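In this section we walk through a basic example: taking a raw amino acid sequence and producing a predicted 3D structure, encoded as discrete structure tokens. The instruction is simple. Fold the sequence below.
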Amino acid sequence: MTVAKRENATQANDSTSKYDPEFTSQVIAATGPKANPRLKQIMPSLLRHLHDFAREVDLTMTEWMIGVDLINEAGRMSTDRRNETGLLCDVLGLESLVDEITSKLLLDAGGESEATPSAVLGPFYRADAPILPNGSSIVLASPDSAWYKEAEPLLAHVSGQVVSASTGKPVPDALVDVWLAGPNGLYEQQDADVPDMNLRGRFRTDAEGRYALYCLRPTAYPVPLDGPAGRVLSMLDRQPYRPAHIHFIVGAKGYRTLTTQVFDNEDAHVKDDAVFAVKDELIVRFEERVGDKMARWTLVYDFALCET
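The resulting token sequence is shown next.
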């Protein structure tokens, strides 16, 4: 094992030594005295890693241009309805890694360990979903539609409480933003057959910090394969599915905003999420709901927020 490591290190050093050893230092030294402080702090590390990568793999101009075109295409596809660049970061595990780093930094800075874990935002978030009364349904499709008939076995009631992670006391007037994909695996902006903002809504907690809504038990779906992120998955021979999940953003005055997801424990893809976002604490169990004509399933899930 030691010999193998030495050989690998020798190969890396040989690859580095055959290129200008001063080049990266020159690029770093070009930073001016009035540079943004945070960029001045982090750019030397980024440049060293980026340049070392290029040298280590003997990156060619053709390969570099393919990468540039990939990023450009992701940018052109990205809108306020779909973030393809974010999705590309997701499938590479970068957003989940940054989410873990951010959570650890907050915890080290005095964040409460009992706080609900965060998870990635995902590429299909839309701002300004309608604010609805507690107990409302975010299923806006017509009951006569084919989409609704497919969704009907999944109708669900989701409720819970928003509390302080440090005291356990309820957080009134918190805003719970929720969205999810439909039974066909499509978010509403991907599906021309459903109304705008279908399966999206925001809810204010009551005096006891409680929220409630009707939605669907979520469905697993593949990340879109029609763009750069999907092509990367195909080229790497990776499975493209996200486990069944519901997205939440929960915020309140005096508390850090929480972006997270909850995952259906019966979905096999909780073990191999294409964007590496699953955390054990976010895996939930849906139960059968009895005596409610609007829902066949129920989920009770509480959110614990860190104080600012």
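Looking at the output, two observations stand out. The radius of gyration is 23 Å. The mean pLDDT is 94. In the next section we compare this with other chains.
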